[in-house]
Amino acid sequence: MNSHLFISVIFASILANSVSALPRFFPNSSSIPRSLIPTNPDGKWDAFKNLTGCHAGENVDGLANLKNYLHYFGYIDKNNFTDEFDDNLKSAIKTYQLNYNLNTTGELDGQTLEQIVRPRCGVADIVNGTSSMNSGKKTTSSGIHIHAVNHYSFFPGTPRWPAGKTDLTYAFLPANNLPDSVKAVFSRAFQKWSAVIPLTFTETSSYVVADIRIGFHSGDHNDGEPFDGVLGTLAHAFSPPTGILHLDGDENWVVDGDVAASAVVSAVDLESVAVHELGHVLGLGHSSEREAIMYPTISTGTRKVDLAGDDVDGIQVLYGSNPNYNGSATSTTTTTTQERDTSGGGSRFGGQLWLLLAVGMGLLTL
Ligand SMILES: [Zn+2]
Ligand SMILES: [Zn+2]
């Protein structure tokens, strides 16, 4: 057993014993009890909307919290955050706006705050000041035509599962006692990816030695990235070959796919989040392409389970195409024509990649 695997197994064993409560699953959004529906439609980040219209130089309650948020997702260095709208905050907001295709005003306008409060993946968009979402990419212009690069991204060093390992095993945290309906959601999510790349995924009951380990956890669960209750961050996953995928056990997870049928704001479609997190498990980072599975946010009551062309292009760079793949994405994207960024190709693989939250550090602290 190599040292990485050894540490991974210890890590898995500790996590297997750290579950405080069973996750909540609902067959559909209308079966969620009223008592579990938050009063704030956007959950814990709703208060950020009160910052609408703040300008540089102002001192407003809540800006320090916003700086903490932007720090968590990689947009601003850790500092003694105050409630002052300083230059660092303005710069961080501009980068955020660039990544999410918003007007890069550096102002806290309504559109920007609407985006900021959406439930999202807990994986950071930027680490060490670099990003391969929009803010880390070049856009070239030719005459009146603007050609955007592809929006998919990878982890630093472009890690992937080893070439000889084409059948990956996966297992569910035994303490979660997941019903078959939930396991079936993950089976479908794996199929989205195996349809386009030459990898297969097989469930095993042996959690500790499985390549991919899936667990629902609440709050602090010993990997340095505590979950935050209903909405906010929904899930996170670690880069290959770590194989760790965690979901927030406090969400109101809807398993049967009719999440849009109700106005219940806290209903989160499990399959949509599962497909996204498996993208991380396989080596994809976040994408600025709104239609892509790897876009970092998902609104409640939304179902998005089909890979976009951007996702397919990205994952096939890592693994090649499944010979049976018919060459068209399972959903079409409607954005402007995208071209390979030949001029920026070197830097994509040369280190201008954002980093998933530091799994190495998490393992070292055990
Ligand atoms: Zn993500
Ligand atoms: Zn975790």
UniProtKB/TrEMBL annotation:
Catalytic residues (UniProt): 277
State the Gene Ontology terms under molecular function. metalloendopeptidase activity; zinc ion binding
Q: Where does Zn(2+) 1 bind?
A: 221, 223, 236, 246
Mention any one GO cellular component term assigned to this protein in its UniProt record: extracellular matrix
The Peptidase metallopeptidase domain is annotated at: 157-321
Positions annotated to bind Ca(2+) 2 = 211
Q: Which residues form the signal peptide?
A: 1-21
Keyword terms: Calcium, Glycoprotein, Hydrolase, Metal-binding, Metalloprotease, Protease, Signal, Zinc, Zymogen
Q: Is Signal set as a keyword in this record?
A: yes
Cofactor(s) this protein requires: Ca(2+); Zn(2+)
CDD domains assigned to the protein according to its UniProt record, in alphabetical order: ZnMc_MMP
Which SUPFAM superfamilies does the record cross-reference, listed alphabetically? Metalloproteases ('zincins'), catalytic domain, PGBD-like
In terms of superkingdom, the source organism counts as: Eukaryota
Entry's PANTHER family?
MATRIX METALLOPROTEINASE, METALLOENDOPROTEINASE 5-MMP
What's this protein's name?
Answer: Peptidase metallopeptidase domain-containing protein
